[in-house]
User: Which sequence fits this backbone?
C-alpha cells in the first residue's frame, strides 16, 4: 500500500515550508517503522515568486524502498493523492505552474475518499465556490490560519508547519499518527509548545472536516491543453510568436501569451480607485507582467487573468489608497475594473471600498516577517455623484 | 537554509555507520565529500548540481570540513581551479550539469592526460535548448572517449559511497585518472531519503590520504606540469592513458572488495549488478535510477512466470568488456535502455547500445539486441514502460532482432 501526500505551496514564499512538511512526514513515518521518501515537483524549479508548486511525500507500511521509489519517484507529478495539502487558500481558484500546463483544479489529484486540506480562514462553502466538481466524494478539511508567506530561502517559524502535521494526522492517520507527530516534535525541538500546536490542530481539524459530494463545486472553466505530437509542431525548436500589443490598441485590444497567463500566482490582487489616479503611469511602467492596459481616458485597466499579485503597483503608486492589495478569495471573476468604473463610477467606488475593507496588506519578503497588516483610511470619491 | 527545528538523526549501533539522516542525493554527495576530507572545492551553480555546492558551503560554515571553497566565475574556471588544486597535492572536488558541464569541457579533457585524480559529480541534465532541467545522460557521456573514469550511481546512498570509492580508485598510483560520478538529475539529486552516513573512522580505513609523490607541484619541489609537447609525444601519452584505464579494472575490483569488507556486502560485483538473471532469457540493461522501475517490473513479470532479469551497468569507463561479454552471452535477447541519444549513429540508437552491441560482436552466439531511447529531458520511465520494453525484448528473442531495432519510449507520436 502507498499513501501519497502533496503539499501545494506558493513558490519562493513557501518553498521551505513545503519542503519541511515533506521532510517531517518522512521522518515521522520512518519512526513509525514505515518506508518513506519525499521530493519536490522538479519542473517547478527555478521557482518564481508565488507560482503554485508542489512537494510530495510517499509512505508505505509494506513496500521496499526500491518499489516505493519505482512507483512514485521517477515521475514528474503524482498520479493521485490521499491528501492534497494547500498552504495558501487562494490556490483553490486553480493552479497553473508553468506554460502549456493549463489552470488545473486544486483537487485534481485527490482520490475518492481522499482529503483536500486547506489552511484557510474561510468556511468550506466559500472555498467550494471556486473548486471544481469531482465525479466522486472526497473530504474537505480546513485548518484555521492565513498563508504563511516568507521569502527566498526564508522560513517563517509561525507553527504552520507543526499545525499542518497535526491536521494531516487527523485527516489520514494511516500516513502519520498524532502521537508520532507529537513525539517527533518533542524529540527534535524539546519544545512542548510545538507538539501542543500539532495536537490542537489535530483536534480542530477533526471538527472541521466534511464530505464533498459529486454535486458540490463548480464546472471547471479551464481546459487542460493537449501537448502536440512530435510531428505536429513546427520543426524549428520551440518558437513563441509575439502577440499584438501597444498603446494604440487600447484596453480590449491587447493580446497576451495564451499558453501561460499566470493569474493563479496571486494571493492578493490590486484594487484600483480610478477616481484618485493622477495618471502618473508608474503602475503601467513598473508592472513586471505588463498587466496594466492604457485606456483612452489616460487611466490604466488591470487584466487580472495575467496579474500575479506581486504588489509592485501598490508599492510604486504615489497616491494613498489608490492601489490597494486585497485577498484574492474576495473575488469571483477577472472582469475589467475599468469597464465597471466607466459604467458607474459611484457603484464601482463603493464596490472597491467594500472589497478593500479595513486591512492593508504588505509583505516585506526578504525579512521573512511575512505579511504586515495595517489599518487603511477611507478616501472620499473625487468624482461627483451621478 | 538550516532547519530551525534542528536536524533529527538516528544514531545507529554499527561502528562503520555513524547515523541515519534524511538527505537528498545532492546532500548525500556533500556528505561523501566531507568524509573524504576534501581540501579544495570549486563551485559554480547550475541545476541540479547547485544543491551539492549549497550543501558543501553549509558543511564548511558549520565547521564540519576544513576546505578551501572557491566560487568560480564559470564552469571553465571552476574546473581549472579543481585541476590545478589537484596538481599541488590537494584532494579536489568539483561538479556541474548539462550545458555548464559542456562549457567547462576544455579543462576537463586535459585533466586526463595530466593524470590528475580529481573527482567531479555530474548531476545529469538535458543539454538545452530550450532550457530543460530534467535528466538525460548525454552530458556525462561526452567524456566517454576522453580518458576519464566514468560511473553512474543508481541511488543517493550509492552516490555518497561512490565519492569515497571514486577517490580511492582515481588516486591509486596505478591509475591516477580523473573520475566523473554521474547521477540522474531530479530523481536522484533531489529526492530525500533516510540514508546511512558512514563513520569517519571507517572511511579513513578505506580511503588513504592523497599522495601525488614527487610530481606534486610545490615551492620545495619545483616541477612543470603539462608543458608543450610536439606531435612526437601524443600517441604515447594516449597509450599510457589507456594502460592506466586497463590497470584501473583491477583497482576497481580491489576497491569494492575492500569497501565490502569494511561496510558489509554492499556491492556483489563492481562493474554491474545482475538482478534475477540466473535463469533469465531476456534482460534489460540500463544506467542509473531507471534500475528501480526496471527491477520492480522484473519482480512483477517473474510472478507471471516470465524469465526476465535486469542488469544495472555502473561503470561505463573503463567499459567492462570481458565481464559483460561473459554475462550477456547467456541470454536470448538483450534490450538496452538509453537515457541519451546518439544522433546519426548506426541504427540511430543510444550510446550505451552502440557500446554493448559492439562488445558482443565477437561472440559466436550473440543475443538478439534491441535499444530503447527513453526518459530524455526528464521524461518519466515508469514500471509500465519497463514492462513494455521487456515485451519488445522478449519478442526479439523469439523472432530475432527487428530491422528497426530502436524504439522510442514515452514519445508523443
Assistant:
Amino acid at each position: 500500500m502507498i499513501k501519497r501526500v502533496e503539499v501545494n505551496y506558493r513558490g519562493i514564499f513557501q518553498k521551505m515550508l513545503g519542503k519541511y512538511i515533506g521532510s517531517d512526514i518522512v521522518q515521522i513515518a520512518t519512526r513509525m517503522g514505515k518506508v518513506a521518501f519525499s521530493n519536490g515537483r522538479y519542473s517547478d524549479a527555478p521557482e518564481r515568486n508565488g507560482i503554485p508548486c508542489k512537494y510530495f511525500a510517499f509512505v508505505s507500511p509494506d513496500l521496499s524502498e526500491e518499489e516505493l521509489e519505482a512507483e512514485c519517484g521517477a515521475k514528474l507529478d503524482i498520479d493521485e493523492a490521499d491528501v492534497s495539502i494547500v498552504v495558501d487558500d487562494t490556490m483553490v481558484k486553480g493552479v497553473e505552474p508553468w506554460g502549456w500546463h493549463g489552470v488545473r483544479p486544486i483537487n485534481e489529484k485527490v482520490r475518492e475518499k481522499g482529503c483536500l486540506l486547506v489552511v484557510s480562514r474561510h468556511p468550506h462553502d466559500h472555498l467550494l465556490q471556486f473548486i471544481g466538481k469531482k465525479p466522486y466524494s472526497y473530504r474537505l478539511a480546513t485548518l484555521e490560519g492565513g498563508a504563511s508567506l516568507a521569502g527566498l530561502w526564508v522560513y517563517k517559524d509561525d507553527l504552520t508547519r507543526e499545525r499542518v502535521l497535526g491536521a494531516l494526522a487527523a485527516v489520514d492517520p494511516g500516513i502519520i499518527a498524532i502521537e508520532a507527530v507529537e513525539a517527533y516534535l518533542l524529540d527534535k525541538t524539546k519544545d512542548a509548545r510545538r507538539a501542543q500546536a500539532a495536537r490542537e490542530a489535530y483536534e480542530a481539524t477533526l471538527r472541521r472536516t466534511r464530505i464533498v459530494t459529486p454535486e458540490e463545486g463548480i464546472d471547471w472553466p479551464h481546459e487542460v491543453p493537449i501537448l502536440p505530437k512530435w510531428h505536429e509542431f513546427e520543426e524549428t525548436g520551440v518558437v513563441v510568436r509575439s502577440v499584438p500589443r501597444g498603446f494604440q490598441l487600447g484596453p480590449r485590444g491587447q493580446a497576451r501569451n495564451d499558453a501561460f497567463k499566470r493569474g493563479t500566482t496571486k494571493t492578493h490582487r490590486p484594487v484600483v480607485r480610478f477616481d484618485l489616479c493622477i495618471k502618473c503611469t508608474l503602475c503601467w511602467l513598473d508592472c513586471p507582467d505588463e498587466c496594466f492596459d492604457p485606456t483612452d481616458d489616460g487611466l490604466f485597466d488591470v487584466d487580472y487573468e495575467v496579474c500575479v499579485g506581486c504588489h509592485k503597483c501598490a508599492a510604486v503608486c504615489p497616491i494613498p489608497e489608490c492601489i490597494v492589495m486585497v485577498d484574492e478569495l474576495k473575488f469571483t471573476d477577472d472582469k475589467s475594473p475599468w469597464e465597471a468604473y466607466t459604467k458607474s463610477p459611484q457603484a464601482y467606488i463603493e464596490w472597491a471600498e467594500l472589497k478593500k475593507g479595513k486591512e492593508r496588506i504588505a509583505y516585506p519578503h526578504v525579512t521573512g516577517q511575512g505579511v504586515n497588516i495595517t489599518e487603511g483610511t477611507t478616501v472620499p470619491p473625487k468624482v461627483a455623484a451621478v | 537554509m538550516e532547519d530551525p527545528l534542528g536536524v533529527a538523526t538516528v544514531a545507529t549501533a554499527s561502528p562503520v555507520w555513524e547515523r541515519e539522516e534524511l538527505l537528498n542525493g545532492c546532500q548525500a554527495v556533500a556528505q561523501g565529500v566531507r568524509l573524504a576530507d576534501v581540501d579544495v572545492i570549486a563551485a559554480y551553480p547550475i541545476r541540479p548540481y547547485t544543491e551539492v555546492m549549497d550543501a558543501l558551503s553549509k558543511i564548511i560554515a558549520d565547521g564540519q570540513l576544513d576546505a578551501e571553497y572557491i566560487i568560480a566565475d564559470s564552469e571553465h574556471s571552476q574546473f581549472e581551479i579543481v585541476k590545478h588544486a589537484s596538481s599541488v597535492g590537494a584532494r579536489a572536488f568539483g561538479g556541474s550539469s548539462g550545458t555548464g558541464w559542456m562549457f567547462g569541457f576544455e579543462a576537463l579533457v586535459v585533466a586526463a592526460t595530466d593524470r590528475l585524480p580529481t573527482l567531479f559529480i555530474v548531476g545529469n541534465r538535458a543539454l538545452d535548448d530550450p532550457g530543460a532541467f530534467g535528466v538525460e545522460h548525454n552530458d556525462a557521456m561526452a567524456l566517454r572517449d576522453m580518458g576519464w573514469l566514468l560511473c553512474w550511481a543508481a541511488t543517493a546512498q550509492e552516490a555518497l559511497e561512490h565519492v569515497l570509492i571514486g577517490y580511492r580508485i582515481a588516486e591509486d598510483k596505478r591509475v591516477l585518472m580523473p573520475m566523473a560520478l554521474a547521477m540522474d538529475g531530479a530523481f536522484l539529486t533531489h529526492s530525500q531519503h533516510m540514508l546511512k552516513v558512514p563513520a569517519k573512522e571507517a572511511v579513513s580505513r578505506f580511503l588513504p590520504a592523497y599522495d601525488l609523490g614527487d610530481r606534486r607541484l610545490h615551492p620545495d619541489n619545483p616541477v612543470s606540469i603539462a608543458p608543450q609537447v610536439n606531435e612526437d609525444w601524443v600517441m604515447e601519452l594516449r597509450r599510457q592513458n589507456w594502460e592506466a584505464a586497463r590497470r584501473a579494472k583491477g583497482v576497481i575490483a580491489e576497491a569494492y572488495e575492500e569497501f565490502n569488507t569494511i561496510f558489509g556486502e554492499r556491492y556483489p560485483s563492481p562493474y554491474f549488478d545482475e538482478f534475477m538473471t540466473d535463469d533469465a532469457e531476456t534482460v534489460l540493461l540500463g544506467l542509473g535510477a531507471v534500475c528501480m522501475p526496471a527491477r520492480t517490473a522484473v519482480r512483477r513479470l517473474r510472478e507471471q512466470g516470465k524469465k526476465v532479469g535486469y542488469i544495472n551497468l555502473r561503470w561505463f569507463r573503463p567499459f567492462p568488456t570481458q565481464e559483460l561479454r561473459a554475462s550477456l552471452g547467456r541470454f536470448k535477447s538483450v534490450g538496452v535502455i538509453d537515457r541519451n541519444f546518439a544522433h546519426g549513429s548506426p541504427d540511430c540508437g543510444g550510446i550505451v547500445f552502440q557500446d554493448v552491441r559492439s562488445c558482443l560482436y565477437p561472440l559466436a552466439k550473440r543475443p538478439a539486441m534491441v535499444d530503447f531511447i527513453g526518459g530524455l529531458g526528464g521524461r518519466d520511465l515508469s514500471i509500465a514502460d519497463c514492462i513494455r520494453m521487456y515485451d519488445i525484448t522478449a519478442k526479439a528473442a523469439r523472432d530475432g532482432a527487428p530491422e528497426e531495432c530502436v524504439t522510442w519510449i514515452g514519445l508523443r507520436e
Notes: Chain A has two domains: 3-212, 247-375. The CA atoms of residues 186 and 192 of chain A lie 6 Å apart. Chain A has ten helices and 13 strands. Residues 247-375 of chain A form a domain with the Alpha-Beta Plaits fold (CATH 3.30.70).
